[in-house]
Amino acid sequence: MELRQLSFFVAVAEELHFNRAAARMCIAQPALSAHIQALEKELGVRLLERSTRRVELTRAGEVFYDRAVRIIGDVGLSMDVARSAAGKAARTIKIGTVYPATIGVLPAFLSRIGRKFPDVALHVTSGSTSDIIRGLENGQINLGFIRPVENIGSLRFFSIAHERYLLAVEKTSPLALRSEIDIEDLRGEKIIAFFRQNLSYSERYFSEMFETHGLSGNIAYRSHEE
User: Fold this and answer.
1) Rounded Cα distance, 48 and 60, in Å
2) Neighbours of 158 (CB within 10 A)
3) DSSP assignment of 127-163, as one string?
4) Is the dihedral of CA 97, 103, 106, 107 positive or negative?
5) Could you give the CA distance from residue 194 to residue 3 in angstroms, rounded to a whole number?
6) Is 148 within 8 Å of 108 (Cβ atoms)?
7) CA dist., res. 29 & res. 198, Å (int)
8) In terms of DSSP bridges, do strands 48-50 and 55-57 run parallel, antiparallel, or are they unpaired?
9) Can you tell me the distance from the alpha carbon of 73 to that of 216, in angstroms, rounded to the nearest whole number?
10) Span 93-112, average pLDDT
11) Of the listed ranges 38-47, 55-64, 128-137, 154-163, the one predicted with least confidence
12) Cβ distance 143 to 93 under 8 Å?
């Protein structure tokens, strides 16, 4: 299997038209078809359903497309880093981040990368965890800082930092005098919670926590700010 075969397949998968994909890749249409057929033969599965009217991805093709996009992106990123390490010009590394990371781990990370690879251009965009995962899957970004998720598909991730949540109470509240507070201590309190439509990690986490401990009825107000 060759990297160019993956590139040819990605072009067909995105165009869903062999002639347009061939023009995009600057290759003759018969040659492009031959590369796709060779790829399918090597894999032992059909990646595309072809007819006189349209081209469609099979289920295997959809899965393979996601992997091919990531492989091509990883190869491009590796080339950039290698060129930078050798003192040659490199292209941009695109980073997606959730907001908390921009004031936490991200500045230190960018500083270290900048010192180690001064010729690597870094482009940072912010978004939600789901936005960043989609960007990684379609190759629009190379790496991302996200909130914990239950299912990230075939992407790889690891924990780099942990956050602490703080409880805000009135100065006159008995809870203000305590060094440690258990969630059960909130049973007699009115709670200001996150707005449910935010669908953020923090909102889901506390919503589930309050529901588990029977505190949903204590929520008196909801905030749009996280």
Assistant:
1) 9
2) 4
3) --HHHHHHHHHTTS-SEEE----S--TT---------
4) positive
5) 46
6) no
7) 47
8) antiparallel
9) 44
10) 82
11) 154-163
12) yes
* Chain-centroid distance, C-alpha 84: 25
Which pLDDT belongs to residue 36? Answer: 92
What is the chain's mean pLDDT, rounded?
A: 82
165: CB partners within 8 A, 6+ apart: 202
Q: Are 129 and 147 in contact (CB under 8 A)?
A: yes
Question: Rounded to an integer, what is the distance from CA 168 to the centroid of its chain?
Answer: 32
**For residue 105, what are its two tokens?**
């781990």
Dihedrals phi, psi of 43, to nearest 5 degrees: -80, -25
Classify residue 173 by its DSSP letter: S
Q: Which of residues 159 and 152 earns the better pLDDT score?
A: 159
| pLDDT of 193 over the 60 cut | yes
Environment class of 134 (CB within 10 Å of its CB; exposed 0-12, middle 13-18, buried 19+): middle
Q: Which helix (H) or strand (E) holds 222?
A: strand 219-223
Q: How confident is the model at residue 107 (pLDDT cuts 50, 70, 90)?
A: confident
pLDDT digit string, tens, across residues 13-62? 888 888 888 888 888 989 999 999 999 999 999 999 988 778 899 999 98
Q: Residue 103: exposed, middle, or buried by beta-carbon count in 10 A (0-12, 13-18, 19+)?
A: exposed
Query: Tokens 């500045």 appear where?
Result: 107
Region 148-170: mean pLDDT is: 76
